[in-house]
Design a protein that fits this description.
With 345 residues, this protein is an alpha/beta fold. It is built from 15 helices and twelve strands.
Length: 345
Amino acid sequence: MAGNTRRIVAFPLNGNVYTETLYAEVQRRGVEVVEGLWLSGWLVRNLRRTDIIHIHWPSFLYSVPSSPVRTTVRLARMIFLLAFAKLRGAKVVWTAHNLYPHDTAGERWADRLGRKIIVAFADLVFVHGQSAGAIVATELGVHASQLRVGHHGHWVDVYPNTIGRSASRARLHVDLDEYLYLYIGRCRPYKGLESLIAAFAETSVSGRLIIAGSFSSPQYLETIRQLVACTARVELVPQLIPDDEIQIYLNAADCVVLPYRAVLTSGTAMLALSFGRPVIAPNLGAIRDHVGPHSGILYAADVPQALTEALTAIRSLRFDEHAIKNQALGLTWSRLADMLLDIKD
């Protein structure tokens, strides 16, 4: 391919359903996307003047949790490589999936510095929704001229969806008339599972709660195991749910509960909507742009009883599965692809 042809250099391209789905849309338009290597030698040999460097989670470029010294060295390298890319003539884009990396309180100095670096060098910063844009602009000092607002694309037809409600409930041993709350996704402390279990235990309504997802911390897994063991009607499935089995949990569920303590963008909320499931979530970040009265309940994250009340209130509401799914279908990946391909030299 000619050296003056527009190309996306992705950090990363593979290994994440978000990036793979986004770049599939870009590639359908005839634009090349390559997996970048964050190494000076690779960038010197491969980076073109017309390339767009697209970074998603900058902390992976510098963070060494066990070593502040190595983290500092990698932050310096980050400055050098971004400066080199700009001098070469490439454009730099950052998609702000989160305000700061989660669960890294001990490295907050590095994360704050890392954000300052990426914002200083980025030609554009992408966000998912107006609410996320306002937060990023205020907290990170992103100028209006840098900011581009799109929406997280839907997952309809990205994950298999051939097993209906009855078969899904049979697989999970859930009665057809039993109300099923679901948490699905990676299980990390900032996602507030302790609060969910406590709130569920306080409700007087019938039903069951399933928590399904992988744990990266054995200590956190043990904490949740102990809470679940002391709480009736809660089932823990502590494992990565394969892509072809996600449909079983979503189609069996009556609602999806995301009790996050902090969130800017939620791919899991979009996953729930893509399966036509209402969402209970805190009124935070971009979730408020996608979850409304017809697709779930947003509760005040700083009110102690708000989650318990939301778990109870949703039982008296009726949601149209097809309307929720149609709402999700309106959030295509095209806008994000357009934002990338509209970047001028």
